[in-house]
Amino acid sequence: MSEGKGWIWGIVVVAVLALGGWLYYAHQRALHLASIHAPGETAAGAIANAPQHYSIEHVRGAPAAASSAPLPALNDDAAIVNALAALPGGEGLRALLKPRALIQHIVATVNALPDRSLGSDVLPVHHPKGAFLVNTHGGQTTISLDNDARYAPYMRVIEAIPTPVLVAWYVHFYPLFQQAYQQLGYPHGYFNDRLIAVIDNLLATPDRATLPKLVAGKNGMWDYADPALQSLSIGQRTMLRIGAADSATIKAKLRAIRADLVGQPLPPR
């Protein structure tokens, strides 16, 4: 893992988008990452293709009126960005997004989060401003809490957009996500199944009372000192790097998104 990086869409959802995109480079930007793995290549402890099917047609609360509105073409980034920015709470989103092949990059980012690495060329959002900061005391290095200010614009969007609104947008635009997922190399895959599996992988990230210790890696990178943490998926390693408050906010958003998509909340851990 590297120095800085940071989601989300982690997903299709601004929370995941932010997670997959900004969170990844906010915490690990210096890492020399390989390009996205070929379909099916996942890390140790990552997830396989989700065995359970989650039909997008059965998502509760999907507004019938929106389902009849015409969709833009997959490559019509202007229309897609405008639709996102028009969501309640989405005013600050436009400045964060990279308006090129947006749906394709969201899909690629979400798909790669359970892997060992994520190619920087697929991120759907701009990197956080400023340098990634660490603290060294008594010979031990940890992430500086001063990094929180760099992620504030992303967290504001994650918190501002109501989950039902975000899920309704995703359901309406789902055909484009499905098209992009098939073009990514999964002609028989179902993106919503993969999204739920990725959310579950992120939610399985262990909660920690303190930030993990870091050690210098190759080419100026930072790795986790604990090999067990270093072996986690890129999404989980990223979740471990953010502050406890932001991590709790993102997990709460992901749980709410998952509940709306699946129709029921996760059982308590």
Give an overview in words:
With 269 residues, this protein is mainly alpha-helical. It has a domain of 182 residues. The chain is built from 10 helices and 5 strands. Strand 2 and strand 3 form a beta hairpin. The longest helix is centred in the middle third of the chain and has 22 residues. The N terminus is likely disordered.
How is this fold's topology laid out?
Layout: E1 7-9, H1 14-28, H2 64-67, H3 77-85, H4 102-112, E2 134-137, E3 140-143, H5 148-160, H6 163-184, H7 191-203, E4 214-216, E5 222-224, H8 227-230, H9 234-241, H10 244-262
Antiparallel strand pairs: 2-3, 4-5
Helix pairs in contact: 1-5, 1-9, 4-6, 5-10, 6-10, 7-10
What gyration radius follows from the Cα positions, in whole Å?
17 Å
Main sheet specs: 2 strands, antiparallel
Helix content: 40-55%
Average pLDDT taken over every residue? 77
- Beta-strand fraction estimate: 5-15%
Strand order, sheet with most strands: 2-3
Helical stretch count? Answer: 10
Number of E-type strands: 5
Uncertain stretches of 5 or more adjacent residues: 1-14, 18-46
- Distance between the amino and carboxyl termini: 27 Å
What's the helix-strand series?
EHHHHEEHHHEEHHH
Shape descriptor: globular
Helix vs. strand class = mainly alpha
